[in-house]
Amino acid sequence: MAVRTLVLLAEALFCLGVYGLLTRRHAVGLLLSIELILNAAALNFVLFSRVFDQVAAQAFTLFIIALAACEAVVGLAIIIRLTRTAQTIYADEATVLKG
To answer: Whole-model pTM?
Structure first.
């Protein structure tokens, strides 16, 4: 597959993630949108490391994957806590955890 096609795929993933962040109210949907954005960034790092022969970009990709795993764990823990206290998982109604 051509590099240009994969860059367009990464751009599409990023745009879908931003669209999901701007339009979703559901907390799990927001987490999935953030995952799409992180995957687009990781795909770009892998592609540019392939084009420019840089190993450092692949190391950044590993950090992005670790960051995505940590984000999922912390985000799901917050969602579980919000569900137990406020009986909702909508981001608009998440004022219970303030303070």
So the answer is: 0.84
Q: In this structure, are residues 94 and 82 in contact, taking their beta carbons and an 8 Å threshold?
A: yes
- Report the number of distinct structural domains present in the chain: 1
For residue 30, what are its two tokens? Answer: 């927001």
- Extract the tokens encoding 58: 């692949």
Once rounded to an integer, what is the mean pLDDT over residues 63-76?
92
For residue 42, give the nearest of 21, 74, 71, 19 by alpha carbon.
Answer: 71
Helix (H) or strand (E) holding 96: none
> CA-CA distance, 34 to 8, in Å (whole number)?
18
Predicted confidence (pLDDT) at residue 96 exceeds the cutoff of 70: no
CATH code, domain with 67:
1.10.287.3510
**Within a domain: residue 98?**
no
